[in-house]
Amino acid sequence: MIGIRIALAGNPNVGKTTLFNALTGSRQHVGNWPGVTVEKKTGRINRNGHTIEVIDLPGTYSLTAYSADEVVARDYILEEKPDVVVQVVDATHLERNLYLTTQITELEVPVVIALNMVDEAEATGCTIDRERLSSLLEIPVVRTVGTRGEGLDDLLDAAVREAKTSPHHEHIVGYGNEIEAMIASLVGVLAADKDLGDRYPLRWLAARLLEGDENALAKVKESPVSSRVQDILSGTDLDEYEAAMADRRYDVIAAVLPQVRTAGARSMNVSEMIDRVVTDRYLGIPIFLALMWGAFELTFVVAAPFVALIEAGLAWLSAAVAGWLGPAWLASLVGDGIIGGVGSVLVFVPNIFILFLFLSFLEDTGYLARAAFIMDRLMYAIGLPGKAFIPMLIGFGCNVPGIMAARTIEGEKDRLITILVNPFISCSARLPVYILFAGAFFGAAAGAVVFFLYVLGISTAIGSAKLFRHTILPGESSPFIMEMPPYRLPTVGTSLLHTWSRGAMYVRKAGTIILAGALVVWCLASFPFGVEYGSSESLAGSLGRLLEPLVAPLGFDWKIAVALLFGLVAKEVVVGSLGVLYGTGEEGDALSTALLADPGLSAATALALMVFVLLYAPCLATIATIRKEAGSWRWAGFSVAYGLVLAWTLSLIVGRIAPFFLGGA
Amino acid sequence: MKNVIQGVFGAVLGALYTGFGALQIVAVFTGPAVPFVPASVFWGFVLLVIGAVLLRGARNLSRGLDDGIVFVNVGILLSVAFGAIALLAAGAGALEAAIAGEAWSVADAITPAAYLAVIGAAGSSRGAEGSSGGSVQHDATHP
Questions:
Q1: Would residue A257 count as lying in a domain?
Q2: Per the domain annotation, does B136 fall within a domain?
Q3: Do A272 and B53 touch (CB under 8 A)?
Q4: CATH number (domain holding residue A75)
Q5: I need a surface site. Which of A82, A516, A544, B58 has the fewest CB within 10 A?
Q6: pLDDT per position as a tens digit, A15-38
Q7: How many domains does chain A have?
């Protein structure tokens, strides 16, 4: 078997991940790029005696070093030297995509172009002469339609052929006499350092230095030729060179395009039609809110029968286990601890999967990009770029990737604000708490209450961002440039795969962190020996009594105090802990019944509790991510303290005001 | 002629959506007064949004703006999408009642979002049958 490494590069939203999934199927491994928190996906294929490893590079518009994604993609090609780079090119946006091609070829690696979404280009009447394009660029160009798996065999054949036989492309852009002379003089100096020459293509390095690329400057900083490079660069206007070189790349593209592309008759396509309405100045935000509410209605109502089935199954299991297990303590450990704790979280699996399915559908159709666009005006008003809304949307799933997604934001203060407000976006881990309390105390209005909490989370994030912008992180937000991908009808398989990859994390957590949390809470509720399980005399009771004064003004008792404390590990543990403390392992909806029967709880207290869970300190994983992304414990500590103060204050207000609207319920 | 029909259809359906949306919201405060129009702020809001999209389309068509068709079509698309959500919710309610052994009535499934979507879908299919494959010209100056 011969091993070949293929790096999959391309602009965002060109169908790169869809093509990666189609190529590798389920043979994927997801991790992080070394030293950074940008997701790394690799997959393996066996084909015609070759073991092909496919690496999905982050989507980038260029290979400058303005964002972490660009640095990761560029450094992988430079340092790891894949056998071939397959650039996925969106046939409907050829000009912008070819800009990246001009930069990849400068890295002197074999390149194959996967001309993707050709069907969409053809639907607009546009035709692309692949052979002519291939001949002009001296790069193999293969037609692919990733969503239907078309062209995959041809693509792999071309990649293998190119990896094994093709000479390297040096470049396809000439920058003109003046710039070329500067590049030549820099290459002459850089060539004196053999180590640099071995590691990097010198023409590429010289061109980046001329563009004032900080990352490239860092690469030569330790070199013995560093001072001579600085001498050459010191008398030049690097910004001017950067602009001139970008112009030259577009000149080349402008010369190529008319020779390969025939534009169709220009009429409004379906994407443009939908965009005219959903990005409308007045209707855009109401439509977005209506769709998000639809998502929560589905999440709550459609999942209900499946939740009932799981509850029934757990009730049967709990009763059966109680019958099988002899010692009372063991029956309590399994029934109250494991089934009561983990089971009370697992029952919400249908809700989580339905929410993720809906969000995946909106994302895969291309609507979420529009959501960021329509929120731009609002975001700009609070001093953040519209791009900051995307990490917020991702935060609906989990705040950890939401915070990581802030890496695409260029401005340091913009990025920091986006990171700090992300924990207020209601992640899926908080959903079980809402469903439990809203379902128990608000009946048919539960969906509306959950929707209110999500809106409250977004409002708090926006309000906090404005506060930070005007106080601790003042400045102007950077302009928002974003591509609108065409609308696509996602396949059932793609949506289910996305849903599973996100939802499985929740299930895994139930079997690890939540199980551990439930066992700890069970131990605290059972010891010291001889006390009544879960009573105020138990260790849990003592701990709760210690914390109770802090939360008593909010109407919370010691059990809730303990649940909130353990909820810091993961928010679902709040439900798991209550399941253990109320000892509700043996009946399906016993926890809801127990909560309703608790005289210390009312609809107003439940609402205050849900607001507290929404806003109080982020979970441990999120805190660690904030520290890593913000670069200091100071910001992570600030996030925890700010969240606690805000949660306490707002919960107090809600707890006091709500009875007037809920009739003292 | 096709634009006139689309415009009238958008206006009538938009008025129905707006009216029923308002009724659903008002019912929250006054109690349900009309059969098959349950009280719900959020469903009322959704119906108002769909109504606004359809009425905007009708208004634009009445002014001779071709993009009115776009608003009417997207309004119908939203109508069908939310109709599907309403039906899914009703189906889930029936299933849950069956599992829990509770009472469930077909009347629970008859909500404005569901029955107005049937009108929208019917109009949409008639529109598709009568469509001659015309297109809206792109207007780069549109805001």
A1: yes
A2: no
A3: no
A4: 3.40.50.300
A5: A516
A6: 888 888 888 875 566 555 555 545
A7: 2
The answer as to whether B141 is a domain residue is no
Q: Which residues contact A491 (CB under 8 A, 6 or more apart)?
A: A147
**A136 shares its domain with A205:** no
**Whether the Cβ atoms of residue A585 and residue A318 lie closer than 8 Å to each other:** yes
- In chain B, what residues touch A268 (CB-CB under 8 Å)? 70, 135-138
Going by C-alpha positions, the residue among B67, B2, B135 that lies closest to residue A124 is: B135
Residue A120 within a domain: yes
Cα distance between residue A589 and residue A348, in whole Å = 12
Residue range(s) defining the domain that contains residue B27: 2-130
- Provide the chain A residues 241-270 that lie in CB contact (below 8 A) with chain B: 266-268
In Å, how far is A286's CA from the nearest CA of chain B? 6
- How many Å apart are CA A179 and CA A198, to the nearest integer? 24
* B128 at interface of A, judged by CB pairs closer than 8 A: no
Q: Is the pLDDT of residue B139 over 60?
A: no
Give the chain A residue whose CA is nearest to the CA of B138: A268
Confidence (pLDDT) at A166: 59
CA–CA separation, A510 and A507 (whole Å) = 5
**Model confidence band, residue A541 (pLDDT cutoffs 50, 70, 90):** confident
Answer with the residue of higher pLDDT: A368 or B56: B56
Contact B42 A447 (CB under 8 A): yes
Chain B partners of A293 at a C-beta cutoff of 8 Å? 42, 45-46
Instruction: Please give the mean pLDDT across all residues of chain B.
Output: 83
Q: Do A205 and A70 have their domain in common?
A: no
Q: Residue A121 is part of which domain span?
A: 2-165
The ipTM of this complex is 0.89
| Residue A395 binned pLDDT confidence (cut-offs 50, 70, 90) | confident
Long-range contacts, stretch B133-138, CB < 8 angstroms, 24+ apart: B134/B2, B135/A267, B135/A268, B136/A267, B136/A268, B136/A273, B136/B66, B136/B67, B136/B69, B136/B70, B137/A266, B137/A267, B137/A268, B137/B66, B138/A266, B138/A267, B138/A268, B138/A272
- A493 in a domain, yes or no? no
CA distance B38 to chain A (A): 12
Q: Is residue B14 part of a domain?
A: yes
A160 shares a domain with A182: no
Could you tell me if residue A531 is inside a domain?
Answer: no
Claim to verify: residue A32 and residue A121 sit in the same structural domain = yes
Instruction: Summarize pLDDT for B84-105 with one digit per residue, the tens.
Output: 999 998 998 898 888 877 788 8
Interface test with B, best of A267, A271, A273 (most B CBs within 10 A): A273
Whether B143 is covered by a domain: the verdict is no
In chain B, how many domains are there?
Answer: 1
**A587 interface with B at CB cutoff 8 Å:** no
**Chain A residue whose CA is closest to B142:** A276
pLDDT at A372 over 90: no
Same domain, A44 and A119: yes
Beta-carbon separation of A297 and B89 below 8 A: yes
Q: Is B92 in contact with A301 (Cβ distance < 8 A)?
A: yes
